């Protein structure tokens, strides 16, 4: 990656660990690596996006004005913390689904949190973008527009992806869509590389970020950052993506397994990515090494698991999913050493 990407960042963002796990499926043992973005300074993969977009959008290095942007949570949290350090006035427009952790963190950083409610026929993402744009127009604040700003995928093409693939070779990589920036950035990187890594997008059943929703699948979209109700601005017909759909109830079931066995404290969308990777591995007849891009940590959701996310999925539905998943993932466990630290 260009040295300037890292050298110019005054925060401890990136250089996150790649943690190795193993899983045996039908007698075949695979290696499953987690790129744990929760270890960045502000706790998520969106630290990279917030710094990269902001630092390259400021009118001057010493500018002390106001910025506004839309976010489902993690990006807003990171932007608020970075803005606090730089002495900027930050406004974050989010949705009612924002996690309590992120909402509290944004306000604790001195930023203003505005909740956007969709108009009829409008997605939550669309409502956030609309209101953020309106605030910028009314106040003169700098609108970073992460959902449409090409600096978003560029941060991953030039920073995240090179960091991941410099550490090991992989047969496949897996990620969630969120804003679509990670997906587009990794896709662009792999298209320009000589790597033979299959890229897979893991989505909930109702997400239409990169592909239309198939008929007859369960409705959902209650886990922040896991899927989108609108087509990503970074999606176009040139992207040949393999999409693996994992129901949110199965994500809740897998999350319970990981926590109960003390295996990992990744966030809910990241658990979805790992579950999608395991689903893909069940279809492989030879050993594979794969990597999951894990966007954040469980601390952003853990205190709302029982009160909010499991009820949204349905208690009985989650219990049934746990019974079905338990045999499949029972052999999932850590490898003793780390690829990197």
In short:
It contains eleven helices and eleven strands.
Written account of the structure:
The chain is α/β, with parallel strands linked by helices. It is 38% helix and 16% strand. It is built from eleven helices and eleven strands. The protein has a seven-stranded mixed beta sheet with strand order 9-8-7-10-2-1-11, with helices on both faces. β1 and β2 form a beta hairpin. The two termini are 18 Å apart. The C terminus is likely disordered.
Largest sheet at a glance?
7 strands, mixed
Q: How helix-rich are the residues, as a percent range? A: 25-40%
Rg over alpha carbons: 19 Å
**Into which percentage range does the β-strand content fall?**
15-25%
| Beta-strand segment tally | 11
Q: How are strands sequenced across the largest beta sheet?
A: 9-8-7-10-2-1-11
Low-confidence stretches: 337-341
Number of helices: 11
Measure the end-to-end span. 18 Å
* Shape call: globular
Order of helices and strands: HEEHEHEHEHEHEHEEHHEHHE
Q: Roughly what is the average pLDDT, rounded to an integer? A: 91
- The SS-based structural class is alpha/beta
